[in-house]
TrEMBL record:
Name the UniProt record assigns to this protein: Squalene/phytoene synthase
Keyword flag Mitochondrion: yes
PANTHER family: NADH DEHYDROGENASE (UBIQUINONE) COMPLEX I, ASSEMBLY FACTOR 6, PTHR21181
Keywords: Membrane, Mitochondrion, Mitochondrion inner membrane, Transit peptide
Localization in the cell: Mitochondrion inner membrane
Length: 401
């Protein structure tokens, strides 16, 4: 399958890239009299993390996104400046988690890698991250958040662990029993990414979380669809696309699987063996892809209707199904009284940059429709050159249509 050459050029491994970046930073530091006060990443009180090390971690994470998750890299410019470091670290973590199935040779090793990240996140939250660039940058960003808010805002360890735990399913390619299970996976990964980013602004808003939930579900469903061909035929490509974005990382080949909800496959008459044998021409496959893509599109349509209601001075139109769950409590303490004076529309507009994945998801779904839901078309794995312009217009107009 042909993949975009400008995205998938041969490159150093992430470990080599990290060592190269650290080495170059140390050379630059020895040659310079002093650091510029306008450096991209501020000095941090994170235990054992020097400024040069944090800057190198930032460069590593940015390079990871540029190569393996181009949409997230492009959309980072719409994130408020004070939260960009956390956003970069969080999205880099998502890339690393999503590539574990392809960079491990067994289920047991995959579980060990997930446990490493649970431990790394816990240490990053305590300010003592391991010598790993993503963990270092996370710890630095969370230290900055603590200083900016005088300790009032925090990042939920439960949400970070939810992201990690949800990836266990991808280690063995267990099928989604129904489309509700697929939505649950998207909620626990892509929606949670948005919740965490909102927390870093900081923003505590039931309306903002509600919008983020629908956008994350749409993005997660689209990501699973996008990765379907390479999950089904890993031996043909020797790797699988990062479901967070557009890139691939080298790794072990695994038994293929058709990652569509079983109830949708049954309704459309899709048989896994037919997909392995016939690919895009498997009976019912396009109908099944259409059904799943429609669910993602429905979430984006719901978001647009919510925004229309808010602009009309109404409420969003329906209740947030996750209100009251962990991390979704909205009894703000006295320290956040300034936020209590904002309307729901004010809150959504303030956090609008966080919602830009809706634009990337809509563009991809439109491309899928343009090829008549042939999920095996190679252009569906390429970056969309229209994304920066579409995202700019959306951000300026405060609309996701």
């Amino acid at each position: 399958m042909s993949l975009s050459k400008h995205i998938f050029q041969p490159c150093r491994t992430p470990q080599q890239l990290w060592r190269h970046t650290i080495s170059r930073r140390r050379i630059q530091r020895s040659q310079a009299r002093q650091f510029s006060p306008s450096s991209a990443v501020a000095a941090s009180s994170v235990t054992g993390a020097a400024e040069a090390e944090i800057q190198a971690a930032h460069k590593y994470c940015s390079s990871l996104l540029l190569k393996y998750d181009r949409p997230s890299y492009t959309l980072s410019t719409f994130i408020p400046r004070n939260a960009q470091t956390f956003y970069t670290a969080l999205r880099a973590l998502n890339v690393s988690l999503s590539t574990i199935p392809d960079t491990t040779s067994s289920h047991t090793i995959g579980l060990m890698r997930l446990q490493f990240w649970r431990d790394a996140v816990a240490k990053a939250l305590s300010g003592s991250p391991p010598k790993e660039p993503i963990a270092i940058l996370l710890a630095s960003a969370m230290s900055d958040l603590h200083e900016r808010t005088q300790g009032r805002a925090r990042i939920s360890k439960g949400w970070l662990n939810r992201m990690i735990n949800a990836r266990e399913q991808t280690l063995v390619n267990d099928p989604y029993t129904n489309i509700a299970a697929l939505e649950s996976y998207a909620e626990n990964t892509y929606s949670t990414l948005l919740y965490l980013t909102l927390s870093a602004l900081p923003m505590t808003s039931v309306t903002a979380d509600h919008v983020a939930s629908h956008i994350g579900k749409a993005a997660g469903i689209a990501a699973v669809l996008r990765g379907l061909p390479l999950v089904a035929f890993p031996a043909a490509t020797h790797n699988r696309p990062d479901q967070a974005g557009t890139g691939t990382m080298p790794g072990a080949t695994k038994q293929g699987a058709v990652m569509l909800p079983l109830d949708v496959m049954a309704q459309a008459g899709v048989k896994e063996e037919d997909v392995f044998r016939l690919g895009a021409e498997a009976p019912g496959l396009r109908d099944a892809v259409f059904t799943v893509a429609t669910r993602a599109s429905d979430h984006l349509i719901t978001v647009q209707q919510m925004l229309s209601n808010l602009h009309a001075g109404q409420d969003v139109g329906h209740e947030f199904e996750h209100e009251g769950e962990e991390g979704h409590e909205y009894n703000l303490p006295d320290q956040f009284k300034d936020q209590q004076t904002k309307t729901p529309l004010d809150e959504v507009n303030q956090a609008f940059g966080v919602f830009m994945p809706a634009v990337a998801t809509r563009l991809w779904l439109d491309r899928l429709e343009s090829v008549d839901f042939d999920i095996f078309r190679p252009e569906l794995l390429q970056s969309d050159w229209k994304l920066p312009w579409k995202a700019y217009l959306s951000f300026r107009r405060k609309t996701l249509s």
